[in-house]
Amino acid sequence: MLTTEFVQLVLLFGSGSVFFLFVVLGIILKVTTTAFPKIIRFKDEQFYTDPTSGENLPFPSLADEPTLKLSVIIPAFDEEKRLPIMLDECLEYLDERSRKEKDFTYEVIVVSDGSRDRTVDVALEYVKRHGTEKVRVLALVQNRGKGGAVRMGMLSSRGEFLLFADADGATKFTDYGKLERSIAQLCGNDWHRDALAIGSRAHLEEEATAKRTFFRTILMHGFHFLVWTFAVKRVRDTQCGFKLVTRSAARKLFQVMHVERWAFDVELLFIAQSYNIPIEEIAVNWTEIEGSKLTPFWSWLQMGRDLMLIWFRYAIGAWQLRKEHSN
Length: 327
What we know:
The chain contains 10 helices and 9 strands. It has helices at residues 2-32, 83-100, 119-130, 146-155, 176-187, 205-211, 214-230, 247-256, 264-274, 296-316; strands at residues 47-50, 55-58, 68-76, 106-112, 135-139, 159-165, 196-200, 242-246, 279-283. The chain is globular, with a radius of gyration of 22 Å.
């Protein structure tokens, strides 16, 4: 009898302590967090360099009217080795499309996320080869994280449709056509309307599970469970680095997104889901490329923590969405 009463007392004390900690955490987050992100952009990040003339020219703004069909944003951190392969494939596809279709105009923005190697120099070689109308380099003063780099590229773009693609070239760039057809159906090919078409590796899950260690498989399923529980329920693969958005949707999403590191995709899709923005997942060809900056255990642990904090901050109103943007 005493044992039962003791267990009940412990459970009551434990649940009370957890509730108290959540209340304290909520108060701290509410007091120390701003409802909308403060997007800081250093002066040097407002310009791109024309290596031919040596001039520093101002980037346009996402708030401006679009002047091109497509902007491709490539976040890159210490990618001097993998970036050329991706850019060669990307630009070959885009050049061929522009030759065949007169109204297909594009730009590629390589966003160096505070790289310590020759990423900027490598990217500038492509600027010399293709010109600043086709390729531009945005060199961030300090490392912000992949989400921060993607946001800065989006804010500097000229396209009606904006694609961000990983610098490792893991997704075949020719699969852009699949995303393009999907988003055209979602928005009627009108950039004024909100829509997202996102690459997905969900169809490769069984094959990937067979190749992974048991420990990494457990981590993967645990992460997917957390995503489904706390953030995004309608998307099976939130992390594929191949996502296409309309300019209208980009204006709404990247102005309120807080997370700048690996979990930014989840917050981005959480915001889109909250705004009732149409989202379609499209199966893409994907190959694992050596040189990933992710260390599975610690990166997924960090993302798991960020996931719960994303949900908690929005739940208590520490982070907010703009109601006028909801569809």
